[in-house]
Amino acid sequence: xxxxxxxxxxxxxxxxxxxxxxxxxxxxxxxxxxxxxxxxxxxxxxxxxxxxxxxxxxxxxxxxxxxxxxxxxxxxxxxxxxxxxxxxxxxxxxxxxxxxxxxxxxxxxxxxxxxxxxxxxxxxxxxxxxxxxxxxxxxxxxxxxxxxxxxxxxxxxxxxxxxxxxxx
Length: 168
Hints:
- By secondary structure, the protein is α+β, with helices and mostly antiparallel strands.
- It has helices at residues 11-27, 34-37, 45-50, 76-82, 108-120, 136-144, and strands at residues 2-5, 54-58, 64-71, 91-99, 126-132, 148-154, 160-167.
- Strands 1-2-3-4-5-7-6 form a 7-stranded mixed beta sheet, with helices on both faces.
């Protein structure tokens, strides 16, 4: 298992994987990431690629299993959600954690989180991420993978999000 920094030449692959995941979510009745299907990306993943903050995740057969973004600085979104808990200056803010649909249910999510911990050990003090509070399966998953649920916060639309940290 390995993480590989995405190059600007691979930006279209990133956007394709993001759209693939948004379609998968829609097929399961979720409207999460629905803006992606309208051609929008509120997290500006293409700009994150330029900042060298997006990583592909490959399995041992060198198949592209997923991807993740690890922001060096908190985004406007992070600042909103984490305001009540303080913004930690040497954190990586994790977004767009994706295991491609064909690879789901095979333990790759756990492997991806483990690879993130290894990748940023010594470079950052903490990994931070959030997920919808109503996504109980994901809340449980992050907890099972040693991320500490430090509380919850509301976005500007009144949706509740759980906040997680992992100290490196």
